[in-house]
Amino acid sequence: MATLELINLSKRYGKKVWGAKDVNLKVNEGEFIVLLGPSGCGKTTTLRMIAGLEEVTEGKVIIDGKDVTYLEPRKREVSMVFQSYAVWPHMTVYDNIAFPLKLRKMSPDEIDKLVKEVAEMVKIEELLKRFPSQLSGGQRQRVALARALAVKPKIFLMDEPLSNLDAKLRVKMRTELKAIHHKTGATTIFVTHDQSEAMSMADRIVIMKDGKIEQVGTPDDVYFFSANVFVAGFIGTPPTNFFKMNIIGENGELHLKNEYIDIKVNDKVRKALEKYNKDEIIVGIRPENLLITDNKDEAIFREKILVVEPQGSHQVIAVELGNQIVKIVTPAFPKYSADELINVTLDQERIMLFDIETEKRLEGI
Amino acid sequence: MKGNKLLKQTLFYLVVAGIILVILTPIYFLVVISLMSDQEAYDWPTQMVPSFFNHFKLEIDGNKYLISVYSPSKKEYVSIIRTDNFDELQKFVRNKTNSNIKKEIFDIQVQKLNELYNKNKEEIEALRSQVNTLESKLNRVTVSTVKLKSQLEKAEKAGMENLISLIKDNIEKYEKEKATYEAQLKELNKQLEEIGSVKFSVSKNIFYNYVRFFQVTSNAWPALLRSIQVALLTVLISLTIGGMAGYAFARYYFKGKNLLKLSVLFVRMFPGISIAMPMVIILINMGFYDKPLGLSLVYSVGQIGMTIWITASIFMGISTELEEAAMIFGTTRLGAFFKVTLPLALPGLAASAMYAFIGSWSETAQAIVLTQFNPTFPVVVYQTLVGAKGLINLTAAGGVSLALPAVVFTLIIRRYILQMWGGVRV
Fold first, then answer.
1. Is B331 on the interface with A (CB under 8 A)?
2. Chain B residues 263-302 within an 8 A CB cutoff of chain A
3. What is the ipTM of this complex?
4. Domain boundary at A210, A234, A258, which?
5. The overall pTM is greater than 0.80
6. CATH no. for residue B294?
7. pLDDT tens, B22-47?
8. Do both A250 and A159 map to the same domain?
9. What are phi and psi of A154, to 5 degrees?
10. Residues A35, A104: one domain?
11. Structurally, how many domains does chain B consist of?
């Protein structure tokens, strides 16, 4: 259990490509941090720099107040679970878990006790004598986890540990990982590209893009108060609908308008727009905040349904506005069908407005 | 459909049988001949398996002993030596039949023979004189036949019809006579054998050829040791340098990597013998000429390229994450290599070690050029083959002793090549 601090952490490949740039992050004791982003966003690079597997170009890594930027991996007291598990094939499960402990010069009795303890924690007591080649993917994953747990690290690093598991097992392991984290209370950095994994496990999510941090926040923060267009678009399925709109004042009323959509804004939005002095704006509306209504006057647009995607608990309706596909999430009932004409309105409390140039979210909304 | 399957199966078994035949037959021949005596090797291939005993016949002829050995191919006794000196007899018999007749056994047989001889002295003498007369008769008949045959040829050329038939009749007559004499002679010899000779069997020293090979070629033992030295040194050099280079090729990116990797194979494209000539000068300058180290250096040049290619693909197959995991869990960079990568690469390393060993072990051409007074074992075998004409059993023994260390090394290394953690243990 420890704190971690990254100060202007940067990694440059070759002369121009930045794997990570000016990553600043402060992780509290016992926190579960998820690094989230599309592939190539620098999340794994950042993790590997924390582990010491990647040389740092600039910046500092500080664990428990101690600068470890140029320390060997083994001296950092971190442990890591790899995407490919990286359990050593020439050792039995027992030896895999015991190997790091032996290197720490523990007595055989201590090692034995510890191995049994972690094996029980991840439920692999029966597999200790087997070789990794005799295990399934999920079991190997557990071995890797046990090995990482056994050394009682200051920081627990996980590099997409669930991505090689099948969907069902992944969800199950997610719960177990969270339970283990709760039990051990170890500071954890978890890398994933799966947002539902991130949302369900994280205390705080770090969203990265092109080597830079876009937003750091709790799952609710990043979902409801997305800092910019990228975050709003990345988090949530189906993704947020974005519209480029003009701000038009008519008869003392303020409208957000484009070719197809006309939104008469409420007071809250109007207040937020007061400080904004550009004509155009990006409006983001999450699919579940678009509502289908019978009231024609309320509607911001009227359109024929393109396709309906039933999901059981809800249905996703797609309509086409010009070249843009707009997705709407509605409850399972009433049922809609393709080519049906619908009136769509929105929940203005949940509207997201972004600066047209900086793509940053407008303050106050 | 069923017929098709049957056909396929038959074809498959035929191919398998063919492969076995092609591989095993030469090995079988080599090993069998190496276990045979001169006498047996002479009978090859009527006799397919080496015998473990030799059957001897001892006679007294005048005041000398005549010893013969049974030849399975001729189905009769073939005389070896006629002498009155036991030491000479023993040595000669040993070299010819690989059996060592001990003095005691010989004495007993001689005693028996003497008793027999004394008992049947007159009969033997009578039979002998009969044999002698028969032999001279046979001789005469043979000579006459030959003469007649040449006359027949002349007559045929001249075209004298009446003469031809006459000569033909005569030849026929002589040949009949010859046959009867031969039958009589055989009968007499048989009788003589029964009353005038003793027969006994002596076990054969089946590995005598090997002993003799190392006795005859005075530098065989040191050459064998040198060969082992050369082969092990080659394995060591090519595995350390080639292995390290292979690791670098597998793990690091640098400019001209592929070109470099390809160029190490260029060395192998030159025939060893053509490199050997300039190498003589280089080795003399370095002071390694005619020394095992020098030879293994030359061999390593070729083997390193091979080792690099094998080990590079082995190291590429081992995930870097395994090393990184080791580094995170407490080893150094070097420790990760020795504790994780090396054990995992062991099968591949063992395989390339085997290649290097076998390659340098049986190499002859370069060794002939690069050594002078301290040849390696293959050179010695080669020299025996060239020098001792006709002694194929001796050369075969040398060949088998040349193959044996390579086989032993392969068997030792086999368990590393077939290593599978948690898989099927071989």
1. yes
2. none
3. 0.82
4. A234
5. no
6. 1.10.3720.10
7. 988 888 888 888 888 888 887 777 77
8. no
9. -75, -40
10. yes
11. 3
